[in-house]
Design a protein that fits this description.
Elements lengths: L1 E4 H6 L1 H10 L2 E5 L2 E6 L2 H24 L5 H18 L4
Parallel strand pairs: 1-2
Antiparallel strand pairs: 2-3
């Protein structure tokens, strides 16, 4: 991954954009990494990978006994009814 200082990124913005089309470009400020510029194609790929990961985690949670939204709503309704029934009237 190519690294540029924030000053270089500012003065060579066009070159930085061209470089980011080929590979991510890390931008440093005061000696520490503060940002990474990626192409729009790479950003889209990362978004799709994240979406797939969250979808997989949701399917795994559901398969392992976690409740769906409808099941959660029904459970909370039952618990609310139970609490109301157990609470003595004043």
């Amino acid at each position: 991954m190519k690294t540029m200082t924030a000053t270089d990124a500012k003065t060579r913005f066009g070159q930085m954009l061209d470089d980011a089309m080929l590979a991510p470009v890390a931008i440093e400020k005061s000696g520490r990494n503060v940002a990474v510029l990626v192409s729009s194609t790479e950003y889209q790929r990362l978004q799709e990978a994240e979406d797939a990961m969250w979808g997989f985690r949701a399917r795994m949670a559901e398969a392992n006994g976690f409740l769906s939204d409808d099941e959660q709503t029904a459970w909370f309704a039952r618990m609310g009814e139970k609490l109301n029934a157990e609470t003595p009237a004043n």
